[in-house]
Specification:
The complex is a heterodimer. Chain A is an alpha+beta fold. Chain A has two domains: 38 residues; 158 residues, Glutaredoxin. In chain A, the strands form two sheets. Chain A has a seven-stranded mixed beta sheet. Chain A has a two-stranded antiparallel sheet with strand order 6-7. Chain B has one domain: Immunoglobulin-like, CATH 2.60.40.1890. In chain B, strands 1, 2, 3, 4, 5, 6, 7, 8, 9 and 10 form a ten-stranded mixed beta sheet that branches. The longest helix of chain B has 19 residues. Classes of the chains: A alpha+beta, B mainly beta. Chains A and B meet through helix 2, helix 3 and strand 7 of A and strand 4, strand 5 and strand 8 of B.
Chain lengths: 202, 139
């Protein structure tokens, strides 16, 4: 076979392959994106009763998820008090809504401590903790930012106290575990949106 | 006579404080489980003719109390220490959930709704102003 023919054949295979690759990519990309968008938000944590949970554990319910820490003196209790008020305002519809408080401070917020803390707001709210790696992975899955920093004070035991900067949003997850969107707790549309979504589920 | 003098001194002090710095609606959030941290809130008004400055706060109920502010930047909640709060003549400042607050740390005992907790506010000019803060639950 002449040398030029070999080169031409090689080029044909190469370009043909590339063309097929490009075509395949164009065909699969939107589907792959859609599939990824429909996947349950990938978290694996420990609930406040010591049970390992994922987004699938709350299938059939909407999830409203907040990331905070129990020693947060202002923003977290204010947000959770408003979440508890939402549950009350939703009445019987609240039976299909799971409010979740994910701690970004698993070192201090054990499942038992979380349960104790959340009882002050509403017994229906469930606290999620886990290893630091699990919490970091969950935060990443939701697109939550958090960062630990020293407060410059000592805690009750004389150890350096620390606190967190953290995303202040609440995240709405649908009944299949898919992350829908973030809200600020003060959003005037939140209650109505929840009510609409919960009524559609009936 | 001694008693009368003492009365006058006490009364005039109280009257002086009432005329310049007025602290109202002071409350603390009741303890949430065994968490040793909470927050205190109040309204402070400068009724005097000169500016004043709230410098610090203390309470016998907790190891530490510090002025803080919750701020939100691009969806991230942060807490910033507030060195002092300036009060111009006639100005009032409200500490309320989600903004300015007193971070109360290392509580000596859990705070139960309905209890009264003494707060001592220290001002640059008015000196110490004592108030009774009410412990409020969430429900």
């Amino acid at each position: 076979m002449p040398r030029w023919l070999l080169i031409a054949a090689g080029a044909l295979v190469l370009f043909g392959g590339l063309a097929v690759g490009i075509t395949l990519r164009q065909a699969t990309a939107p589907e792959a994106r859609a599939a990824a968008a429909k996947a349950a938000v990938p978290y694996k944590l420990l609930d406040h009763n010591g049970r390992t949970v994922t987004a699938a554990s709350y299938r059939g319910k909407l999830q409203l998820v907040f990331f905070g820490f129990t020693r947060c003196p202002d923003v977290c209790p204010t947000t959770m008090a408003k979440a508890a008020a939402l549950l009350k305002d939703l009445g019987p519809l609240a039976g299909k809504l799971q409010v979740l408080f994910v701690t970004v401070d698993p070192k201090r917020d054990t499942p038992a401590a979380l349960k104790d803390y959340l009882l002050a707001f509403d017994e229906r709210i469930v606290g999620l903790s886990g290893s630091e790696e699990q919490v970091a992975a969950a935060a990443k899955a939701f697109g939550v930012y958090f960062e630990e920093h020293l407060t410059g004070f000592e805690d009750g035991e004389g150890a350096p106290d620390y606190a967190f900067d953290h995303s202040n949003a609440v995240y709405l997850v649908d009944d299949a575990g898919v992350l829908l969107r973030a809200y600020v707790i003060d959003d005037v549309n939140l209650l109505g949106d929840l009510r609409d979504a919960l009524e559609r589920m009936k | 006579m001694k008693a009368l003098l003492l009365f006058l001194v006490l009364f005039s002090n109280a009257a002086f404080a009432a005329d310049t710095i007025v602290v109202s609606d002071a409350w603390l959030r009741a303890s949430l489980g065994k968490v040793p941290t909470t927050a205190a809130y109040f309204k402070v008004e400068n009724r005097g003719a000169a500016p004043d400055k709230l410098l610090s706060i203390s309470t016998t109920a907790a190891g530490m109390a510090h002025l803080h502010e919750s701020v939100e930047t691009n969806g991230v909640a942060q807490m910033r220490p507030v060195p002092s709060i300036e009060l111009k003549p006639g100005q009032s400042v409200v500490l309320a959930p989600g903004g300015l607050h007193v971070m109360v740390m290392n509580l000596k005992a859990p705070l139960i709704a309905g209890e009264k907790v003494p707060l001592v506010l220290r001002f640059e000019k008015a000196g110490e102003v004592k108030v009774e803060a009410e412990v409020r639950g969430l429900k």
